[in-house]
């Protein structure tokens, strides 16, 4: 398995509180992604990063921010959690343009906002 | 705007049958088309992928058929087995770096293979 660790794996939080999810990789891949998975919507890209401090928005970025201060870590922050952000969050890594073009996914973080 | 459309949403097949899942894309800049398999409680894992310079790619019981002019591609699972029961996602990605390297997914197909 690719070296991707998501933490926490499960979290319950209250509406209005800030939440940070962490993705850690040991593969030295350039690209890191945050997706959310919801029934009927598949996997939707929230934000992605193509290098340290280089990030960009995906299709569902409202209410989320990200940071990447080191190659191996990509943090997703919900500034003020809402019930609509209850979801399963997946981190993925890839190194496009190399032999490591495949995207590898972490095990996911199940977030519940009550 | 949904850039990758996947059908059907769900599929029930008998053991030994053929499972077919279809996807269509809009962005002609896409040049890498993977299929992912996801079991409950797990992250998606790459199953098979194709680039548009070939019309078909086969790996074991899994085959991707690709029609560049129609902007369509499909996954065929031959001799489907109960262990193939999972959710399958098609995806597409561009090739020119930056934002084009993000994977865009279809909404997924829940495959059930009955014994």
Task: Give a nutshell description of this structure.
Chain A has strands at residues 4-7, 10-13, 19-25, 31-38, 42-51, 54-57, 64-70, 73-78, 87-94, 104-105, 109-113.
Radius of gyration of chain A: 13 Å
Instruction: Summarize model confidence as the mean pLDDT of chain A.
Output: 93
Beta-strand share of residues of chain B: over 45%
Helix content of chain A: under 10%
DSSP summary: helix tally of chain B? 0
The helix-and-strand class of chain A reads mainly beta
Indicate the multimeric state.
Answer: heterodimer
Find the count of extended strands of chain A (DSSP E, 2+ residues): 11
Give the distance, in angstroms, between the N- and C-terminal Cα atoms of chain B.
Answer: 38 Å
Terminal Cα span of chain A: 33 Å
- Strand and helix order of chain B: EEEEEEEEEEE
Sketch the topology of chain A as an H/E string, one letter per element.
EEEEEEEEEEE
- What structural class do helix, strand and pairing data of chain B support? mainly beta
How many beta-strand runs of chain B? 11
- Poorly predicted residue ranges of chain B: none
Written overview of the protein:
The complex is a heterodimer of chains A (114) and B (115). With 114 residues, chain A is mainly β. Chain A is 0% helix and 57% strand. Chain A is built from no helices and 11 strands. Chain A has strands at 4-7, 10-13, 19-25, 31-38, 42-51, 54-57, 64-70, 73-78, 87-94, 104-105, 109-113. In chain A, strands 2, 4, 5, 6, 9, 10 and 11 form a 7-stranded mixed β-sheet that branches. Chain A has a 4-stranded antiparallel β-sheet with strand order 1-3-8-7, with no helix packed on it. In chain A, a hairpin with a 2-residue loop joins β5 (42-51) and β6 (54-57). In chain B, strands 2, 4, 5, 9, 10 and 11 form a 6-stranded mixed β-sheet that branches. A 5-stranded antiparallel β-sheet of chain B has the order 1-3-8-7-6, with no helix packed on it. The radius of gyration of chain B is 14 Å and the shape is globular.
């Amino acid at each position: 398995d690719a070296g991707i660790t998501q933490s926490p794996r499960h979290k319950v939080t209250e509406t209005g509180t800030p939440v940070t999810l962490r993705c850690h990789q040991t593969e030295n891949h350039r690209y890191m992604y945050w997706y959310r998975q919801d029934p009927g919507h598949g996997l939707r890209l929230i934000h992605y990063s193509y290098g340290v401090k280089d990030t960009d928005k995906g299709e569902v970025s409202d209410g989320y921010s990200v940071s990447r201060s080191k190659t191996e870590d990509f943090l997703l922050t919900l500034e003020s959690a809402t019930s609509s952000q209850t979801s399963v969050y997946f981190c993925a890594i890839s190194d496009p343009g190399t032999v490591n073009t495949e995207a590898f996914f972490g095990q996911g973080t199940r977030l519940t906002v009550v | 705007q949904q850039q990758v459309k996947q059908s059907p949403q769900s599929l029930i097949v008998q053991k030994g049958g053929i499972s077919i899942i279809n996807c269509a894309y809009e962005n002609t800049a896409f040049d890498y088309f993977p299929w992912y398999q996801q079991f409950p409680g797990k992250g998606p894992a790459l199953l098979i992928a194709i680039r548009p310079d070939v019309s078909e790619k086969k790996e074991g019981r899994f085959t991707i058929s690709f029609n560049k002019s129609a902007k369509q591609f499909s996954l065929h699972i031959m001799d489907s087995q109960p262990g193939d029961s999972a959710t399958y996602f098609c995806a597409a990605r561009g090739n020119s770096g930056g934002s084009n390297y993000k994977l865009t997914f279809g909404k997924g197909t829940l495959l059930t293979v009955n014994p």
